[in-house]
Specification:
two-stranded parallel ribbon; alpha/beta; elongated; 12 helices
């Protein structure tokens, strides 16, 4: 005798309903017919509620595997080949023949008609009505899916997206490994310690005084620039945490950076190493400070030497009795750091 089983649902065809149909077959027929079974093979279409993409299908099968103790192997037919499924040829065709010409006026008529299907070779069909509710929209989070992939799903070597096994007992949790080393934190430089005549060419505290004098023109230019770029719309701010070891520059810092740039021709990469910020940030702001200096007829006295690297600046400052700390092991990345063919410049 060849037993068939059909679970007739009255709600949505979801992954939960598909897994419940497998569970009902196992409880009604499979458990008694295969008492020593430790594994179960489920063939599926490529799409739909039991396709290879839905996460909920895998999550529901994982619950069934844990409850039944079965290792459930899933094999999905490639897209466009679901008609190869033996169920199509050995069961559904006979069900279609049985209810041919019969009005299916109710669920009970559907169930009774399917259950009446039989063939001379011994096919019999059990049909049950499933009145459960299976709402659409069930979601499996990324964390839940990662847990399934790490501990429950065993992908096959050939097309693991179509062929995989659901383990009844999860694998041990993977070793999380050592805690990641936090990125080195760069503290802001002491602007007062750097605001010395030997570096600025101005009286002591001259850089701070210049920054105070330029603060209002800078704010006005910045507001006009934002208004022009945004065409009168309010500025949008992204509410995202910033996990960045680089220091956020202040306007007095930009003024001091511009002084060092004009006085010693110090390049932006060396200034960025000094202030612990990105080189592009310095590169964008230096021309703006230069415009303010020109608009206010402020002249920065040229230095006695030209400095090219951060180490040159440290050596020059040390000769004047000013201590500038060494840069951290991890300096701010250059804009082309991800380009394998780019050779980064030293600060």
């Amino acid at each position: 005798m060849i037993p068939g089983f059909v679970n007739v649902g009255t709600d949505h065809d979801t992954a939960q309903f598909a897994a419940e149909s497998v569970r009902r077959w196992w409880d009604a027929i499979g458990r008694d017919r295969y008492p020593g079974a430790a594994r179960l093979l489920v063939t599926c279409d490529a799409g739909g509620s039991n396709g290879y993409r839905p996460r909920a299908w895998k999550a529901e099968l994982a619950r069934l595997a844990a409850q039944s103790g079965l290792e459930i192997t899933v094999c999905c037919f490639p897209p466009g080949t679901s008609k190869w499924d033996k169920i199509e040829h050995r069961l559904f065709c006979h069900i279609t023949r049985t209810w041919r010409g019969r009005p299916l006026t109710s669920y009970q008529v559907v169930v009774n008609t399917i259950a009446a299907t039989a063939t001379s070779t011994g096919l019999t069909v059990t049909a049950v009505l499933d009145a459960g509710r299976y709402p659409v929209g069930a979601e499996v989070t990324d964390a839940q899916m990662k847990e399934l992939e790490d501990r429950v799903i065993a992908r096959h070597g050939f097309h693991g997206d179509w062929n995989y096994a659901i383990l009844p007992v999860p694998r041990p949790a993977p070793d999380p490994g050592p805690e990641p080393v936090p990125p080195p934190q760069r503290t802001a430089p002491d602007l007062a310690a750097l605001d010395q005549p030997a570096l600025t060419g101005l009286p002591p505290g001259g850089a701070a005084a210049l920054a105070a004098a330029l603060a209002i023109p800078h704010a006005a230019h910045r507001a006009a620039r934002l208004h022009a770029n945004l065409r009168g719309r309010p500025r949008q701010r992204a509410d995202k945490p910033r996990n960045d070891p680089r220091h956020k520059m202040t306007f007095p810092g930009y003024v001091l950076a511009a002084i060092l740039h004009h006085r010693f021709a110090l390049p932006a990469r060396a200034i960025a190493a000094l202030f612990g910020c990105d080189r592009s940030t310095i590169g964008h702001e230096l021309p703006r400070i230069a415009q303010l200096l020109a608009a206010t007829a402020t002249i920065i006295p040229p230095g006695p030497v030209t400095l090219d690297t951060y180490q040159d600046l440290r050596d020059y400052a040390a000769a004047a009795g000013i201590t500038i700390p060494a840069p951290p092991d991890r300096t701010p990345p250059a804009r082309h750091a991800n380009n394998p063919g780019h050779t980064p410049n030293s600060p």
